[in-house]
Specification:
Radius of gyration of chain A: 20 Å
Structural class of chain A: alpha/beta
Low-confidence stretches of chain A: none
Largest sheet of chain A: 11 strands, mixed
Number of strands of chain A: 11
Largest interface: A-B, 63 and 63 residues
Distance between the termini of chain A: 35 Å
CATH superfamily of the largest domain in chain A: Isopropylmalate Dehydrogenase
Order of helices and strands of chain A: EHEHEHHEHEEHEHEEHHEEHH
Number of helices of chain A: 11
Helix content of chain A: 40-55%
Strand order of the largest sheet of chain A: 3-2-1-4-11-10-5-6-9-7-8
Oligomer: homodimer
Chain lengths: 338, 338
């Protein structure tokens, strides 16, 4: 198993990124990580680490896409950047998967540029895993495809279901369509047409219909389908409100305690570790031929280690093969896309 | 000051709704509430209450719009329903404002039917007030206008700003546009065109540009503008995650305590009372000629009392006059609407 890691991507790169890779190979004896980035920066960090260093390779490249750059411009002007080089390693099958905490838009654009999608996939989508009262659920798309067609959303349901089945152990994953009300006929044109498309598709038995924003955390379904604009806003709203409520809770509830404050702080730290929306293991870009995990820009050691672990689980699960088979079994729905 | 209250609207109507009205008139000596609904149900509830009963009137009507009904059908088939009758009282200027915890879609449809908008207003929008680390902010639209035009969003910024100024005491309210990234040029077509329209408008000095979902609770601006689809999903996601996190906190953090658990529970109850997204004082439908407050379906006494209080503050503030003046001062932007 070989995973390429963009060593230069993320707000805190490269040190915690490289250390996350060291931790990942230490935890998985079959794993090799290829650190993609500036040799001169990576080598001194590695020199200070111990572990199975023979399973850490460096693929040198000289450029980095800045977090504020326009992705398309940056990829064009900086051909030797760590994101493009990671994609190239994947395209040449020199690695099984790639992981980056760098510029999300550039990661997606890098993949779109190569257009190495799974057969029949029209557009890749970013999936994220969200906690609910009944365990994790998959939400997609959260930002790869801002103005999708209904067929894209149907394909996302296939991808998300296979991901939920093989990586989250949901035997028969149920699917919900994000909307402004539960009744059929609700919502904007995209939601209405997509709702009908689901009902006319082989997915209809697992389609629970429209769901509302409050239903996600209640765990009403295993896979939530939405367009990349709404999904991206939703995901970041969750991040913001989590941060806000943790602060309020810490100030007001923990602040009300005296002798038992330490144990409450410990319980809260555990809760934050589990639910912090900004430190989750990373979001897979589904629909590409290979595995690509996009991490939050604020990722540090633990998030990177988790993301590399998710990437190798993803490779081992064979979920891409299952996605291809299920897409193949869908009746042809014509070409409503470019 | 006369406010009509839909006594039949909401999951728990009519008892807690009517009691909320009794509490509201007790708290405001200049207020009369007109209870719109079934006399036979309202009278026995009032008979058990004490307070300034002379300032509680009943406007009898025989029908109710069910929470699951199609709003347009229901308004047509049930002409004597409490929502339509409330709007009628407003249109005839027999009341200054209306409040309902009934069917949101029917409330909006009732207002659209009468089309009693403020001068120049193209479409009313539902505003909601959300807590942030820097105090409350206004978000609109959260569901009245699912597929708005850019001009509608510009008008929402005017309405939201005037509301923030006169009801939330924000001297110079700043405005942000909900998007998937901060940079200009981000997002779907609506977001891109609206961004440029803001920059070309007299609002540009208070426009901070695009914001992301996580920025709301960080309090980066006073007024958040978005389309009704995204706004509605966002609002309900907040409600769901609040419910989820409070349950997790309660189980894990409060569950870790022994002797100090009661004081932590009290602090948590206070926090929930302040931030519970489902029990806020209600969402104003801005842009109509009059005041209309839409409450959460789950509203009980306190939420109804608060909503009536918000309605009367809204009337007293003269904010509608300010909205009209500011819309008048905008250069004509042509007719991009029906």
């Amino acid at each position: 198993m070989r995973i390429a890691l963009d060593a230069m991507g993320g707000d805190h790169a490269p040190t915690p990124i490289v250390i996350g890779a060291v931790q990942a190979v230490a935890a998985d004896p079959e794993l090799t990580v290829v650190l993609v980035g500036d040799l001169a920066q990576i080598e001194p960090i590695l020199a200070q680490q111990s572990g199975p260093m023979e399973r850490l390779e460096i693929f040198h490249c000289s450029q980095v896409v800045g977090m504020q750059e326009s992705p398309v411009d940056a990829l064009r002007k900086k051909p030797d950047n760590s994101i493009s080089r990671s994609w190239q390693l994947l395209a040449e099958r020199k690695v099984d998967g790639i992981v980056s905490a760098g510029h999300t838009g550039a990661m997606v654009a890098g993949g779109m540029r190569l257009k190495r999608y799974l057969p029949k996939v029209r557009r890749p989508g970013i999936a994220t895993i969200m906690p609910t009262i009944k365990g994790p659920c998959v939400i997609l798309d959260v930002g790869a495809n801002i103005t999708p067609k209904p067929l894209h959303l149907l394909q996302y349901a296939v991808m998300g279901s296979q991901f939920a089945k093989h990586l989250l152990q949901k035997e028969v994953p149920t699917i919900g369509l994000m909307n402004v009300g539960e009744e059929a006929g609700k919502g904007n044109e995209l939601a209405k047409v997509t709702h009908d498309l689901f009902l006319a598709s082989p997915l209809k038995d697992r389609f629970i219909g429209n769901i509302e924003g409050r239903d996600i955390h209640r765990g009403v379904c295993d896979v939530v389908i939405t367009d990349g604009f709404v999904g991206n806003v939703m995901l970041k709203v969750c991040e913001g409100i989590f941060e806000f409520l943790m602060k309020m809770f810490s100030n007001e509830v923990l602040g009300s305690l005296n002798v038992e404050r330490p144990q409450a702080q410990l319980a809260m730290k555990n809760l934050i570790d589990r639910y912090d929306y900004s430190s989750f293991g990373g979001a897979p870009l589904l629909g590409i031929d290979g595995v690509c995990i996009i991490c939050h820009g604020s990722s540090r050691e633990r998030a990177i280690k988790n993301a590399i672990s998710v990437a190798s689980q993803h490779v081992r699960s064979g979920v891409n093969q299952r996605i291809t088979e299920e897409l193949d079994s869908l009746p042809s729905l014509g070409s409503d896309d470019e």
